[in-house]
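step 4 of 6: structure.
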Amino acid sequence: MSNLNEQMADRYKNNFLKEIEEQAEMGEWVKMCMQCGLCSGSCPTHFHSGWDHPPQEIFMLIRAGKREEVLNSQGMYMCTSCYNCYVRCPRKVPVTHVMHGIAEYAYRIGRAPKAQPTLHLSKTFWTNATKYGRVNEVQLTQSLYFKDGIGSGIKKAMEMQKEALGLVMAGRLNPMEALGMGHKCKDVSGIHKMLAKAEELEAKNKAAKADTAGKE
Amino acid sequence: MARKEYAFYPGCSSQKGASASNYLVSVESMCKTLDIKMTEIPDWNCCGASVSYAESGELPRHVMNARNFALSEQNLPGQTIVATCAACWLGARESKERLEHSSGLMADTQAALKEAGLNIKVIPEIKHMVEVLIEDLGYDELKKPVKKPLDGMKFAGYVGCQTNRPFGIANESFENPMYLDRLIETVGGEAVPYDQKVTCCGGALAFSEPEKAQAQIKDIIESAYDSGAEMLVTPCPLCQANTEVYQGQINKKYGTKFNMPVLYYSQLMTLAYGGSAKEAGLKGNVIRATKLEQFAG
Amino acid sequence: MAEMKTAAYLCKGCEIDKRVNVAALAKIATKEGKMALVREHDFLCSADGVALIQNDIDNEGVTHVALGACSRRAKTEAFNFPTVALSRGNLREGVIWIRPDTPDAQETTQEMAEDYVRMMCAEVKTMQVPAGNQKTGTIKTILVVGGGVSGMTAALEASKAGYKVVLIEKAAALGGWAAKLHKRVPTREPFKSPEDNGVADMAARIDADANIKVYLNATIAKTSGSPGRFKIDIAIESGSVVTEDVGAIIQATGFTLYDANKLPHLGYGKSPNVVDQAGLEALAKEAAASGKPICRPSDGQPVKSVVFVQCAGQRDASGEHLQYCSGYCCNVSIKQATYFKDSNPDIDTVVLFTDLRTPGNGEDFYRSAQNRGVIFSKGVVSEVTANGNTCTVQFKDLILNEDTAAEADLVVLATGSVPTSGPELEALADAKRAAESGTEETKNVVLQMMDKSVLNLDYRQGPDIPHFKHGFNDSHFICFPYETRRTGIYAAGPVRRPMDILQAQEDATGAAMKAIQAVENAGLGKAAHPRAGDLSFPTARLEGCTQCKRCTVECPFGAIDEDEKRFPLFNESRCRRCGTCMGACPVRVISFENYSVNTVGMQIKAVDMPDEFSEKPRILILACENDAYPALDMAGMNRNAYDPFVRVIPVRCLGSVNTIWITDALNSGYDGVMLMGCKHGDEYQCHFVKGSELGRYRMSKVYDTLKGMNLEIDRLMDMEVAITDMDTLPGKINAYAEQIKAMGPSPFKGL
């Protein structure tokens, strides 16, 4: 995957702003930020650990061409999708989506931080949701708990045992789902074909842009 | 014929046996009283939710929602899609907006849908259940069937994020939306003012960054307690789950003694309309709403 | 002159008669006020009531009218009797509306009303009908000094309104700085693309305008006279002098750029590739003329990267450079960045700013530049160094909080503007004093300063318009832009505050309008703003004058000169009728026909003074008629009650308050005196600019007198009141009244 990273860096000749504009969803908004910082001040995860770069800084870093610092940042993954920044931005920059877009791009070209828990959740969730078309909550929870290995998973599961039992008792968690007996769509194969096509088209579109940039 | 008919998109958490199944039970009871017919979109699929952003990419996420649009329009032509889950509503609305504003994205989406034998002619309107209540029916209509007003009960209307931002409910402010308070008052309860009405519960980060999310949840519950609320009321399954399920962990970590039931607005309405504890899905609350169970008799 | 016949009219309308005993007031007007004729009327401002008064004037020989009704600020159209002296007793806003309608309050409310009737009677007997300024000048031509965008706009606007204009420009062509611009910041929807600078079009319109006479390569050698009859000696190119007669003057002398040579640390002078904004405009013009892209001066190669440094030598807290923001430079840098991006989107274009300020519709333009790919970074530049054909810009990135650097082919410094406002008058006066018996050197200092003079006024108070802050001409920027401290002379454009072209054009239009008002009022012998239309003017009883010169020095408008015998010489049409001279005069020889030491003094004395055992103190309020008095009226309109023991007398300005009023009031038994005037100092709101400041300075002397009289200094209270204080004012009056009550009665009571 680092190949892709090098390809992209090469194609965009280190014009990182352009790279983000063309390759990240909503990346074309980065240049419109006016550095007021309202997004950073509105973020609920503000000042928590791991928040190395708030959105305002991410925007600035991109414009300053600091490619590695942005792609490696944990900042984007602190997003809870609360949309506070989005509705408050005086420039109407869709900050939430820009953060998601940059995170997705960093991950796509293999430069996202390793063992990022929210990134892991994102992967797990999508894989789970698209496997049968609907989310299997038990398997989702299991795979999240056991991401760091069996020992850690059991510990976490034990910690949450009371809560899980509560949900089961309340009829809100179906243990049968663990066995793949849970919710699923009928036309799973249609969904898979459809998604394969979508992924193919998306990859093609992004590659075409990079190729154009590379020829300039 | 019912007075209103909608294409129902329950979403992954609100289906039977899922984490918000009690939401589903109470919505069904509430709709029965209000004479609203909800027909489930056949074979609907997951919206992708916000957190899948990194893995899903752009087009696949919209395609997932587009499949639901196509199925709805094909099987329930002309009907507005109604979601009960804030994330489903938001995801669907976002895809609708993007697809309608980008012909390129739409063309690619159609190409992908074709693989599943589907296509989109027109994208249906999309509403959250709350919009159906206050826009299509109105507070006056919602008040009419009230048989047992929830007199003397104090609720903190917890609006949270995704029914509020970025789209929100028409004519409400992002910073202090009033619709949930008005719904509480419509069924006779008291909506207490408190600071954390639109604070984020952490959303999906409750899984991946539990400490951060629980710190936010603590702020929300604490503020509700301090303002004299007995129960929290929400319109969102993830808000409900996060604020309810983690109270025990928070108590352990912070030495608090939270034990505040977290209800859906539809549960309150069902009870006020004279519904039973079972019809309101009260059994589904992990932190039992004893006061409401007694009220339901 | 006809024999004085007085008449008092008492209105019973607006529930005055329900709240006070009007018959008792009539009795007071007759017995104590000694009015020859006293009438009550149910509705005095009605056609019937007005006709009653007019009939008495026409047929009964009434020459002095005292109206006991509403505030003097109300019903002025109905109560307009220009042929008689007129006083007003404020029974409505000043009494019944500020007192509660309760049985308890009835007695003190009645007493208040009775005093106001006594006061209006006393006042009117000391008044005369103003005759108007007889020495009027009727010249309507308007002089515009400066042929830049501000001056050209003022000339065109005045001409459009039908007035002749003389336009003087020191350069060889019209256009000023704007003519040097390759393009100007957009002025029209969608505010995305720079526009033609517009100078050629304006100059052509001026050429074609028969109303406008232009002198190029010309300066003013001397300005004398006053509104309506200024004489301007113009030094023209040939070295000779021509004289023009004008009625009013608009000073639109604009600005020069802050000298970038003072910024060597930003590379200016060290590399030809560091230019100021004007330098970049010249490069852009040159490029456009030759059809080439903008090139580096060092080697003529096309610019591939450019950095704009905002606030270069501006907003400088150290005081070494300009301390202010020049207002236009951010938009200009945005515009100049588009020169590059529009010719080649691949040119790296970076704007380094601390706060991007984009007045007008600049925000749209800013976004359009961002859309073009101009990079805006929040950063403070510490140094620009030259290395061959490129420059290194060292700066601190304020968002990322790190020291960093950018390489550029070209660096543009936004250096801002310095007003062309003439010498600072106090510094000039000091220099003149130093030169009086001094060396060649000190005399040269004066000559150098005088060389900067724009107007060369022959006024006693100096050759130019006084400055405010940072060398800009004082022009009452808070309340009345364009109004300078020289009547009939108006400042427009960046000479009075920093601004851009669009603002300067609006400014020039406003100044043209003020100049037109000035020539029209001067022709009628009337005052200009803010007492527009006032026919009174000050006169001095010269036999009592001690030639102390306070009036000539203190007049905020330079209206008073000295005659050959060193007596004050009033230039009525320069006078704004504020009365500052009257307040200043230690021997009280200056007065207006309808406003004098007597008109106020007799009101002070007319108030009934209860004895020290009555527990009814009396507090005199002298309230500025511009802000404080309307604020008190508005308190009445809002029915906000205040203490019944105060008696309010409006004054034209705090500057007109003569200290004799204060000492007389305290001597005659008042327990306290409140002065209400406008804010003074750097953010002054005084309608007469310096009046409230001078008045307050004088009052500070009264405190010594109080100590001499063995009185508590708190018996005199100076309060700053703005018109917006109507809600808080009653509370402040009440608090002061409580303080006075706690202090006990004045020892002078009953003496």
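step 5 of 6: annotate
 - The longest helix of chain A spans residues 188-215.
 - The mean pLDDT of chain A is 89.
step 6 of 6: archive
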